[in-house]
Specification:
alpha/beta; 8-stranded mixed beta sheet; 14 strands; binds FE2/S2 (inorganic) cluster
Length: 566
């Protein structure tokens, strides 16, 4: 393999071969590379690593397994870092505004390091919510041989036979506010809910994006579900390193894999699993970076006809480890493929199509109807997430219908211009049944950074108001959010979207069957209010958040900051 690779016109050959590249080679010799290692293709191992939380705490340890796989494939592997913002630690604070921003920073830092050092391809290791889409965005932006491998989720916690995840702490705080549980019980939940390293255990955003990496074809089948502490994770890292060698050998690049069909397949999986609403934002961003015309309208169309067949937290009862035990994402994909929901000709990192890869995958056959059903017997006949349109969201909004028992909600608007005042209102028991909490000016430009409203939504659910209070926001939701919660309302308030015109007491209608989000006002009244609207002064005038606010596009386009593919 080595000799055929050596003669290819690879970026590393241009940078590190020949007499006039002696100065470049000297630096790689300085770190210990030999002549034979210098003659091979150069693979990068991009690792999102941080000790500031459990999600990527252990990922540095995975590097050596990826490197081993690369070496076995005749590729020299060098690791570079990228950043991590742990969503759960920033949640409900000013720090949360950096979360979505970090996705862009991650893509940018990968582009800078991989391009500047003339790597021939890379394996990206990601854990927490934004590291994964950031890595996948860089793969298609750079359009080089690339493989994604997940750091793995945490094991679930237990209190008696009750299975716990981080969501239980947030809802526990809401229950404590209402006097439903004691401080001691909340402390026990806190101690047990996230017992190991790895990402949040339910099908929240991190596990959603990991599952999507398999459906997109950018990760090996079966690689997303083993928990972070599983020895199978090391094996998948090794195989991912090896797969990169094959991709370099065969000249297969990320945009050969991430086509319209791949994005279609990923959306089918997102709908079938009722994954995080953030999945929509990230798929739109990946499509943008790949230069593929895949839009919110495409997602809407799939949400109306793909059945919801996988029951995982927060919509169901199970966690990533449970899905792994019954066959993981390949089992879900096989069921969807057999019923004609997927486009089997899409290419994957194995160099084979999704259809071929699923046929060759060693599936396990164990009882699984409690967590994964056949599409002919779904938990719901339509997708777990709905796209809504209406006079409040001319460019779209999203609702995770699988996470609420309600299909329609009409209520009085109660308007907040920031998250803190909304949370204080719930904390003081001021929010009452029949209200639609509107949290605006928290969109991509307005916040800036489109933070998640999990602290407020969990407090509502924990306070027992999940079926009687709804929320509408131009911000985002955590994958752990439950209830009648509509997010990503576009255009956002900060650019004069209709949500900016809402007033306390307005009647707001959320109708998931009809796919509508409307304020029950005359068009002329809405128009008059919008004509009188004055923008709020920017909340941030310097630093990264101000730079982001100046560049970021609408959530309906993925809240991206780059102009598109290189
Ligand atoms: Fe990192 Fe949940 S906070 S995955």
């Amino acid at each position: 393999m080595e000799s055929s690779l050596r003669h290819r016109s690879l970026p590393s050959q241009q940078r590190y071969q020949g007499v006039f590249n002696a100065s470049h080679r000297a630096f790689l010799r300085s770190i210990g590379l030999t002549d034979s290692e210098l003659a091979r293709p150069l693979g990068c191992i991009v690792v999102s690593w941080s000790e500031a939380g459990p999600c990527n705490f252990h990922t540095l340890e995975l590097v050596r397994h990826v490197r081993g796989g690369m070496e076995a494939a005749g590729v020299t592997g060098l690791a570079v870092p990228t950043i991590v913002v742990n969503d759960n630690i920033s949640m409900g604070t000013e720090g949360m505004r950096y979360s979505l921003v970090s996705r862009e920073v991650i893509a940018d830092t990968i582009e800078a390091q991989v391009s500047a050092h003339a790597f021939d391809g890379f394996v990206g290791i990601g854990g927490c919510d934004k590291t994964q889409p950031g890595i996948m965005m860089a793969m298609v932006r750079l359009n080089m041989p690339s493989v994604f491998v997940y750091g793995g989720s945490a094991e679930p916690g237990y209190l008696g036979d009750r299975k716990l995840t981080i969501e239980d702490i947030y809802e526990g705080m809401g229950a404590y506010i209402k006097g439903k549980i004691t401080e001691e019980m909340l402390y026990e939940i806190e101690r047990r809910a996230h017992p190991t390293v790895g990402t949040c255990a339910g099908l929240f955003t991190a596990n959603t994006m990991a599952s999507i990496s398999e459906a997109l074809g950018l990760a090996l089948l079966g690689s997303s579900t083993p928990v972070a502490t599983s020895s199978r994770r090391a094996q998948y890292c090794y195989s991912s390193g090896k797969a990169l060698g094959q991709l370099i050998e065969n000249g297969i690049r990320a945009r050969d894999i991430v086509t319209y069909d791949a994005l279609y397949n990923a959306t089918v999986l997102l709908m079938a699993t009722a994954g995080s609403t953030n999945g929509i934002l990230h798929l739109l961003a990946i499509a943008h970076e790949a230069g593929v015309n895949f839009t919110l309208q495409d997602i809407d169309e799939l949400s109306r006809r793909v059945p919801y067949i996988v029951s995982m937290k927060p919509a169901g009862e199970y966690v990533m480890a449970d899905l792994d035990a019954v066959g993981g994402v390949p089992m879900v994909l096989r069921k969807l493929m057999e019923r004609g929901y997927l486009r089997g000709e899409a290419l994957t990192v194995t160099g084979k199509t999704l259809s071929q890869s699923l046929k060759e995958y060693r599936h396990i056959e164990v009882p699984h109807e409690h967590i994964v059903r056949d599409p002919s017997r779904p938990f719901r006949p339509t997708g777990g997430i709905r796209v809504l349109w209406g006079n409040l969201a001319p460019e779209g909004a999203v609702l995770k219908v699988a996470a609420t028992g309600l299909m329609r909600f009409e209520g009085r608007a109660r308007v907040f211009n920031d998250e803190d005042s909304a949370f204080e209102a719930v904390k003081k028991n001021e929010v009452t049944e029949g209200e639609v909490m509107v949290i605006r000016y928290v969109g991509p430009k307005g916040a800036p950074g489109m933070p998640e409203m999990l602290r407020v939504t969990s407090a509502i659910v924990g306070a027992g108001l999940g079926d009687s209070v709804a929320m509408v926001t131009d911000g985002r939701f955590s994958g752990a959010t439950r209830g009648m919660m509509v997010g990503h309302v576009s255009p956002e308030a900060a650019v004069g979207g209709p949500i900016a015109a809402l007033q306390d007491g307005d009647r707001v209608l959320i109708d998931s069957d009809a796919g509508r989000l409307d304020v029950l006002l005359d068009d002329s009244e809405l128009r008059r209010r919008l004509e009188d609207w004055k923008p709020m002064p920017p909340r941030v005038r310097a630093g990264l958040l101000a730079k982001y606010a100046a560049l970021v596009q609408s959530a309906s386009k993925g809240a991206v900051t780059s102009p598109g593919p290189l």
